[in-house]
Amino acid sequence: MSGITTKELLEMVFHEDYEKLKGKKLRMTRVRVPGKEVCLAHVLNPSQACIYQNLGLHIGVHEGEDHTGDAVGMIRFTPWEAVVVAADVAMKSADVQIGFMDRFCGSLILTGGLTEVQTAVEEVVRFFSEVLGFKTCAIHRS
């Protein structure tokens, strides 16, 4: 609806009632209704510790463990609560760990071997597309 004026919008929304409402104070509220969508699916194979440190993925690592070089899978969802289902699907489909999960923003970060992370991300995107009817994006890899 680019290029529409306030008057045109009000006429469209209120149809016949627009004439009765002219001159009165109206309160307009915008509400974002998220669709069913996987809007980011990316797999990267980092080779440097700074990637893990900047993502906060080194927190909670047991002494002597070094996950440098592990792959990272990042997936973003709307509605945001879908991330819980995605984490379950990912954990059941491959040997990956949850690096980060945010059910309030819909972000999921998976870590593990490159093949495992790739498999988990692919399965999550497939499940959301074929089983749940979500609009999905292509999986990118770097």
> Pairing-aware structural class of the strands and helices?
alpha/beta
CATH superfamily: BMC (bacterial microcompartment) domain
Number of strands: 6
Strand content: 15-25%
What percent of the residues sit in helical stretches (DSSP H or I)? 25-40%
Query: Helical segment tally?
Result: 5
> Roughly how many Å is the radius of gyration?
22 Å
Kindly provide the name of the CATH class. Answer: Alpha Beta
Give the tally of structural domains: 1
Distance between the termini: 36 Å
Q: What is the level-2 CATH architecture name?
A: 2-Layer Sandwich
Mean pLDDT across all amino acids: 85
Which ranges are low-confidence, i.e. pLDDT below 50, for 5 or more consecutive residues?
none
The shape is: elongated
What is the CATH topology classification name?
Answer: Alpha-Beta Plaits
The SSE string, one letter per element, is HHEHEHEEHEE
Mind describing the biggest β-sheet? 6 strands, mixed
